[in-house]
Amino acid sequence: MKNKPQTPNSLPRSTGEGWDGGTPNSAPILACPRLTGEGTHTQHMYVFHKMIAGLLLMLCIVTQAIALPKESRVPGGIAIIPLPASEQAPVVTYGKYRVTVVKEHNKWLAVVGIPLATTPGKQTLQIATGNNKHEPNFIVTDKKYRTQKLTVTNDRQVNPNAEDLKRIESESARTEAALTHYTDNLTPNFNLLWPVKGKPSPTFGFRRIFN
After folding, report:
1. Which helix (H) or strand (E) holds 172?
2. Residue 63 zone, left/alpha/beta (φ > 0; ψ -120 to 50; rest)
3. Most distant pair of Cα atoms in the chain: their distance
4. What gap in Å lies between CA 193 and CA 67, rounded to an integer?
5. Which residues contact 20 (CB under 8 A, 6 or more apart)?
6. 3-state secondary structure of 189
7. Which candidate among 28, 51, 52, 190 keeps its CA 20 to 30 Å from the CA of 134?
8. Is the model more confident about 206 or about 173?
């Protein structure tokens, strides 16, 4: 007797029956059914279409929702500024550095890193969209970071000598080159993870005053 072709409504459900790797009362994830008989092609196409629909939905969610960092318009914080509508990403500059621009829900956003040494008050962005230019302002408020005063007996650690100053200048030049480098075709991932487990050291912004 030939197997009766199965319709999509007669495919195995969440009981796990007929599914590779399935367990009772649990829905399989991207598993393939054991398909036999004349209904094999129909069932394969049904499962394939369901998988494609799920992947397209996941892609839509990824492109629409970005894990943006927490906004805090203080020295050492981040400002998230809405940008004018345009087909191409606007070019945004803050001071002498390019600003990260991302698209969320079809709207361009500038993710502005505020230097720790910024003086609180009005700040200005330079925005270029094609031939149009804008200079919107935003306000940075003050923040008092925790401060620790230390007395150091090694004077070289407080007042670097000529050799130390040469190394510091070299490292500063490398840092500046990294800060001025901008990659247009890269979407940043702001959802950072803890690198290791353990007791955290002082957080960003913690200041030490020597002698």
Report:
1. helix 162-179
2. alpha
3. 95
4. 12
5. 28, 31, 32, 33, 34
6. coil
7. 190
8. 173
CA distances from 69 to 20, 31, 161, 188, 210 (A): 41, 36, 40, 11, 32
| SS (HEC) of 124-171 | ECEEEECCEEECCEEEECCCCCCEEEECCCCHHHCCCCHHHHHHHHHH
* pLDDT tens digits, one per residue of 155-169: 898 899 999 999 999
Please indicate whether residue 8 or residue 108 has the higher confidence score (pLDDT): 108
In the chain, the percentage of residues whose pLDDT exceeds 70 is 69
Closest CA to 129 of 93, 181, 77, 95: 93
Residue 121, strand partner residues:
140
How many whole angstroms separate alpha carbon 149 and alpha carbon 129? 47
Per-residue pLDDT, 211 = 80
Each residue's pLDDT tens digit, 57-83: 444 334 446 789 999 999 999 999 999
Q: Across all residues in the chain, what is the average pLDDT?
A: 77
CB-based contact 91:133 (threshold 8 Å): no
Nearest to 102 by CA among 57, 58, 62, 55: 62
Residue 198's alpha-carbon distances to 194, 195, 201, in angstroms, are 10, 10, 9
